[in-house]
Specification:
The chain is an alpha+beta fold and 282 residues long. It has five helices and 15 strands. The structure holds magnesium ion (2 copies). The site of one magnesium ion has 5 residues, from loops.
Length: 282
């Protein structure tokens, strides 16, 4: 479908602007990670995030999506993505995937992480494995990005990482195929789409300046999903738990800059064997 097309690309100045939005998203997720505790509702998390983004000069860009009024998507346990913040009270041992976006001066950031309510100590071993395997798969996918490479190497790397994790853990993970990563820039969702699994087409060639959001969604059981009657919330069809990790990244000749990671991805990229390459004086 994309043949030997090339990805879109941003200028260095544009990527430096996108870092401001990305950093605000990363800091908002870090705030929620510090604050989440049993007894809070998902709407409490949403209010914290909206206040943080607006008080730092950003706009919650999920609110720019027609029909959506919140700052976050909060997906609990068997919910995969697009859960709507509300009156649900979080309990010890719940797993909550938080997807967050912000626009700053017309540029967008988008990231997600899965948190364990009550911390890792309170979580089941299976949930810890699921979350860690998904986060590792995200970093493997990011590390597969390089100028001149084909974009869909990302999905191959995500899939290979999860296959390896499955062999290590003695459990086969499910990769959700109904939702994918995407380009990002002036708007949160731009072409091209980026599958989280290997596909026959290897995708467009990555140009220097490409900015994308990589976001594996992984289930403990079947990767099949369905949408609830609220027309947003996506759950696993078999009721098994799911995790979702996402980062916005910029790819240049020198390497990668993970715009939604507070440290720009420096530590995790090194661990994944990729070059960390911030722009400007960041
Ligand atoms: Mg997102
Ligand atoms: Mg996204």
């Amino acid at each position: 479908m994309f043949g030997r097309k090339q990805t879109p690309a941003k200028t260095s100045d544009q990527i430096i602007l996108m870092r401001r939005a990305g950093l605000l998203v990363g800091e908002t997720l870090a705030l929620l990670q510090r604050e989440v505790r049993p007894g809070m509702t998902t709407l409490d998390l949403d209010a914290l995030a909206e206040d943080h983004i607006r008080s730092h000069g950003g706009v919650p860009n999920f609110q720019l999506v027609p029909g959506y009024a919140h700052t976050l998507c909060t997906s609990v346990n068997e919910e995969i993505v697009h859960g709507i913040p509300g009156s649900r009270v979080l309990d010890v041992g719940d797993l909550v995937s938080i997807d967050c976006g912000a626009e700053v001066e017309g540029w967008n950031g988008d990231a997600a992480c899965t948190l364990l309510v009550g911390g890792r100590e309170a979580a089941s071993r299976d949930d810890v494995r699921l979350i860690d395997a998904t986060e590792d798969a995200l970093w493997a996918g990011l590390a597969a990005l390089a100028v001149g490479e084909r974009l869909y190497a990302v999905g191959e790397a995500v899939e290979a990482s999860l296959t390896a994790a499955g062999e290590r853990d003695g459990h086969a993970y499910g990769i959700v195929e109904d939702y994918v990563g995407h380009g990002i820039g002036r708007t949160m969702h731009e072409d091209p789409q980026i599958p989280n699994y290997g596909v026959r087409d290897r995708g467009p060639v990555v140009r220097s300046g490409f900015t994308g959001a990589i976001e594996p969604m992984v289930t403990w059981g079947s990767p099949d999903s369905r949408v609830l009657a609220d027309e947003w919330t996506v759950v696993t069809s078999d009721g098994s738990r799911a995790a979702h990790w996402e980062h916005t990244v910029a790819v240049t000749e020198a390497g990668l800059w993970v715009l939604t990671a507070i440290d720009g991805g420096q530590e995790e990229l090194a661990a994944a064997g990729a070059e960390y390459a911030p722009l400007g004086h960041a």
